[in-house]
Input
Amino acid sequence: MSAADAAPTPLSKVDSAVQGLSSSPPQDAPKEKRRASSSVPGVYNILDLEKEGTELQIAKETQKLNWRINKSPMGLEEPEKSALKKMLTTPPVKKIDLHFPLGLEVTARNLRGVTIKDALDAIYKQYRKKVYDELENPVLAGFEWDKEESWTRLIVHCKKEGAPQPKKKGKKGQEGDEL
Output
């Protein structure tokens, strides 16, 4: 067989668009639905509560923590540590701004409802690198909600010193009485 006998067939470029095929999925195919946010029933958006005029109540336990804002909230001991799991507000919200009187503002977020621990973690994140002596008011006194000023944020109050911690018995070299 010679090269002249075998007539070369013209090469044709296969183009899927020409043949009616598409490399992308058809437009009428049902798109995957975007997953709804992992919110829990009964947990509200603070803006929705403002529209409805629903009042917020703040957990009273925040006033009894005597927590230093530059120490990890996980360092708290019982009974204060058990308060960390409680919701910061009633009704529970997904996020809330925490405003300090000097102007700093941090946001606590949790799609299952902001807990006291979430609020303390947000504050701690801002102050963890500060030395205790640098802070004018290093101990959390509590939170205040002033709907006239801003519905969507809580005012953070701090104080100079916490209440004296109960002394531990039986442990040597304990630092609990340095307040």
